[in-house]
Amino acid sequence: MRQDVKDIVNICRAFYIIFHFLGFLLFLLTDNQAVSSTFSSIFFWGLKLLAGILFFIAGKNPGYITKIELKSCNELQDTDWKIPNQHFCEVCKILQPYRSRHCFDCEECISKFDHHCFWLGSCVGELNHFRFAFYLVLECFSLTWAVYFCFHGTNYTEIAFYVILGIICASFTMLTGGLGIFHVYLISIGATTWEIMRRKSISYLKPYPMNFQPFSKGFCQNWKDAITVREATLWALPRPLVVYPFNWFDNEYWSCC
């Protein structure tokens, strides 16, 4: 990883820690429901602790690709159609499997590349996509709860501090909530941010109709794979069909199972 990227990571983590520390002090030193002994208060702090842990581990091992046991994806393909060529990475000196991409921030090729997240200081890829989406959902819920505590049952002699904290929390709630919904959607359809944003320019997706996700195995299997995956997958491209039998349950936008 480049040094400038490491510096950004350290700044983001310092901001995360300082912001949460100051928010914790405000809740602790003033009269509000967040520090009561109620179930909602205990559940809130447990949820926030879990979200904080996930923030620091969500970026671990996104799916770095090495030369070990790496082979051409063409060996897994049906050979009776014109298969798109794989890209050779000049930096890592490997033939990249489909869905992988070299990240110049991490200086590694990433399996099922989604994007590089500067907050995590790592890429989001095949092995950590579920952890990343799970973190976003938990963070959104905990921040929403924090906004509620800021404006409900607080000591109004410190109202200015709560307004500032509430506005900051509300802003990050919208950010994490929007991203969380988007990544839950991506996992559900078996796609990545990179494939959605660069659909027209990715060579291995050109044989298929727009919005059709060739790697999707259906909603349930997509989630099972995202949760249980332990090693990078060598993806094979399905043979394009002459006519796609789209219907309400299986079409170019979703597949039920």
TrEMBL record:
Q: Which GO terms describe its molecular function?
A: protein-cysteine S-palmitoyltransferase activity
Query: What membrane topology term does the record carry?
Result: Multi-pass membrane protein
Main location (coarse class): membrane
| EC numbers | 2.3.1.225
Annotated GO biological process: protein targeting to membrane
Any stretches that span the bilayer, and where are they?
12-30, 42-59, 132-154, 160-191
**Record has Cell wall biogenesis/degradation as a keyword:** no
Catalysed reactions, semicolon-separated: L-cysteinyl-[protein] + hexadecanoyl-CoA = S-hexadecanoyl-L-cysteinyl-[protein] + CoA
Q: Where in the cell is it found?
A: Endomembrane system
Q: Name one GO cellular component term.
A: Golgi apparatus
- Assigned keywords, A-Z: Acyltransferase, Lipoprotein, Membrane, Palmitate, Transferase, Transmembrane, Transmembrane helix
Q: Would the keyword rRNA-binding turn up in this protein's UniProt record?
A: no
Domain Palmitoyltransferase DHHC, chain residue ranges per copy = 85-199
Report which superkingdom the organism of origin falls in.
Eukaryota
Q: What is said about the domains?
A: The DHHC domain is required for palmitoyltransferase activity.
PANTHER family linked to this entry? PALMITOYLTRANSFERASE ZDHHC12, ZINC FINGER DHHC DOMAIN CONTAINING PROTEIN
Q: Which family does it belong to?
A: Belongs to the DHHC palmitoyltransferase family.
This protein is called: Palmitoyltransferase
